[in-house]
Amino acid sequence: MRILVVEDDARTGEYLKKGLAESGYAVDWTRNGADGLHMALETSYDLVVLDVMLPGLSGWQVMEALRAKQDVPVLFLTARDQLQDRIQGLELGADDYLVKPFSFTELVLRIRTLLRRGVVREADQLRLADLHIDVLRRRVTRMNVAVPLTNKEFTLLHLLVRREGEVLSRTLIASQVWDMNFDSDTNVVDVAIKRLRAKIDRPFEPKLIHTVRGMGYVCEVRACAECAPAP
Q1: Which of 33, 61, 99, 227 is the most buried (most CB within 10 A)?
Q2: How much is the CA Rg of the chain, to the nearest whole Å?
Q3: Burial 80-118 (b: 16+ CB within 10 A, else e)
Q4: Per-residue model confidence as pLDDT tens digits over 122-151
């Protein structure tokens, strides 16, 4: 797997090049936005790690020009940490956005996830019955009523709706939402589902989050006779 790093800070660039190489990737590094765009278009990379504040062309400009030509996965790695910056990066077509200072372990995990996923992009807007999820702005409504969720509740709901109709085990949910191995003595998933139902399902019909006994949970629209979730 070949990765292009576009990063103008010498210390960060050297760190990324060395660390990613030690993680098994072939790495090219450039400190200039225009050079980064040229290299990305002329060489077949599996992923691009892109800063925003660059000489030559900004990361925004590189991203916009790159998306007009190809679909290589792009991860923004930048000190620009405002919500609007994240939204702009994702709206321009980036696949992920990580803020500096960062954990190298987290960076590698995100890179592996993007490489497994390839260029398949998730929808920015998700709908199920009268439930609407604005993924970029992390906003949820039912029947046009705003539903405030915590970060974990949003991540859990996003997972359930994105995989509508699939029965998701507690082990899978725990690994995807909390990045943890599931402990059978821990009821964190069940508690989170209960809290999410109280906000998403209790005030509305039809019910969308259902228990599949002995297996896990599924998010889908069911016939009225099946609407009530199992306790």
Answers
A1: 33
A2: 20
A3: beeeebbebbbebebbbbbeeeeeeeebbebbeebeeee
A4: 567 899 999 999 987 889 999 999 999 988
Q: In the prediction, which pLDDT does 219 show? A: 95
Looking at the predicted structure, is the pLDDT value of residue 222 above 50? yes
Which CATH number is correct for 125-226, 3.50.50.60, 3.40.50.620, 1.10.10.10, 3.40.50.1000? 1.10.10.10
Give domain 2-117's CATH number out of 1.10.510.10, 1.20.120.530, 3.40.50.620, 3.40.50.2300: 3.40.50.2300
CATH 1.10.10.10 in the chain, residue ranges:
125-226
Q: Could you tell me if 219 and 161 are in contact, meaning their C-beta atoms sit under 8 angstroms apart?
A: yes
